[in-house]
Amino acid sequence: MKYTNHAGRLHRLVVTLGLAAGAAPAFAAHPGDLDPAFGQGGQVVSDFYGTEERILAIAPMRDGRFVAAGVVNGPNASGPGGSENVVVARYLPNGTLDDSFGTAGFFNLDVDGGPDRATALKMLPDGGVLVGASLTTDAYSDFGVIKLRADGSPDPAFGEPAESGRSGRVRLDIGGATIHDEVFALATQRDGRIVVAGHTRVQAPNGQLYPRIAVARFTATGEVDTSFGGAGTGFVVLPKFLADEAGDYLTGIALTQSGELPADDRITLVGYTFARNNAFIARLTANGAADATFGAGGRVTLQDASSGGVRTGASTLVAARIAADGRLVVLGQGGDRGMVVLRFTASGAPDATFGTNGRTLIKFSGSSDYDEPAALALQGNGKIVAAGYATNRATGAARNDFFVGRLLANGTLDAGFGDGQGRAVVQVSTEADEASAVAVEMSGHLLAGGYQKRPGVTGADFAIVRLFGDPDRIFANGFGTRWQD
Predict the structure, then answer these.
(1) Which string of DSSP letters, residue by residue, matches 132-179?
(2) In whole angstroms, what is the distance from residue 167 CA to residue 154 CA?
(3) Sheet (strand 299-303) strand order
(4) Which long-range contacts (C-beta less than 8 Å, at least 24 apart) are formed by 190-195?
(5) H or E segment to which residue 278 belongs
């Protein structure tokens, strides 16, 4: 292992790795192999405070750098490790922290001593960063957006008033002073307005509180946009998807391959109803009304089922992307306990031309183990990349390892990726490690970010791997354009 110290904070590059059986050596430029020019052996692990630290979003930059965001148990008034904090880190193309960003490569935010976490990222054309976050005041979290300048400092022209200019962040209390509101997705519309989505909690007839999907919009300068939703509040709370006494959880906003909303700025949401074998897709117009042209009244619901040994649907959805032809690709899980990819037409109908009856399973572990999906990306050539973790029993006991799968555009497993069955499994640590974010770089390489557990130590660290992809020269840049020769 190699350790380097940046301003009192340890940055560690780890060489331990493992690939799925049958994968080519890491030094061969084969899609799905680790890139040996990245970190050490294709992996980077960052330990900021020696606490619980996890990547929840990752975004590439045009020049080969990239930004990762998530949560750390960082310092607050109680000292180091006092609470969950927002963290945003920027890396050079080789995986080294970029010391020109923030403080020694990262930005840390604790609002009020309570838990704060970053869950979504958007790169801006000037190198700035928009961060979707849950920000806590008086023990209850609110919807939040943070805007950082290219140097990693809060943008003084954005957000709520501060002593000098603005704070660089904005918060919106949706459910009330004693309700947790949590952000899980962020997007920008063509005029720069910012959409964030997550969930709040509402009271059911039995008197209990249950999560419901909420979507809010802010202006480009960080003010609540009261024109959104039609009620003057700047947000909408979606009606239940299944039952009063069931929780609906938002997991993502569907973006294009270039990280944008579609040209009409309509907002497609995915998620699931907890413990009810029910997943959903919902689409809103640009201004927050239910889109009657999608599904039934703006909604499509899915259930996992099996008939004659053939599985259909999904019980959860965790991510979505909009393909170049307008069709919707979603990632989730069903009873077959793997990463399930489905495709729908632009109007919400199942696309039977994709995979087998509109559905493809990417699975590494045995039938009794779970491989969990977490993130989805599209390549410029239409290939579909999914990431999460696989249950790996290669060394005996079950262990979670990074799992990246790839499909061809028609939903078949990509035999040219990883182990020849569209799979790459990477062991970052001898303990558990999981990917929760994935992105396609300009080079065509794939970045997967998440966390790794440290042997014999409580806590987790940022973990990132880079895999070779395809040099098709057309990749998402997050600015609404494409790179080409």
Answers:
(1) EEEEEETTEEEEEEEEE-TTSSB-TTSSSB-SSSB-SEEEE--S-TTS
(2) 7
(3) 248-253, 267-273, 278-284, 299-303
(4) 190/261, 190/263, 190/265, 191/220, 192/219, 192/220, 193/217, 193/218, 193/219, 193/220, 193/225, 194/130, 194/145, 194/218, 194/219, 194/220, 194/222, 195/253, 195/261, 195/267
(5) strand 278-284
**What tokens were used for 172?**
């919106």
User: Per-residue pLDDT tens for 24-83?
Assistant: 333 448 999 999 999 999 999 999 998 999 999 999 999 999 999 999 998 765 556 678
Predicted TM-score (pTM) of this structure: 0.91
Q: What single letter denotes the amino acid at residue 453?
A: K
Amino acid at the residue 189: Q
Asked if 40 and 19 count as a contact pair (C-beta separation under 8 A), the reply is: no
Determine the 3-state secondary structure of 78 from DSSP.
coil
Token pair recorded at residue 54? 């996890």
- Enter the tokens of residue 128: 């700035």
End-to-end CA distance of the chain: 38
- Report d(CA 423, CA 416) in Å as an integer: 10
**Chain segment 220-265, per-residue pLDDT in tens:** 999 999 999 989 999 999 999 999 999 999 999 999 999 999 999 9
Gap between the Cα atoms of 276 and 341, Å rounded: 20
CA angle, 143 as apex, 141 and 148 as ends, to 5°?
A: 110
- Say if CB 67 and CB 74 are below 8 A apart: no
- Sign of CA pseudo-dihedral 243, 195, 90, 407: positive
119: left (phi over 0), alpha (psi -120 to 50) or beta: alpha
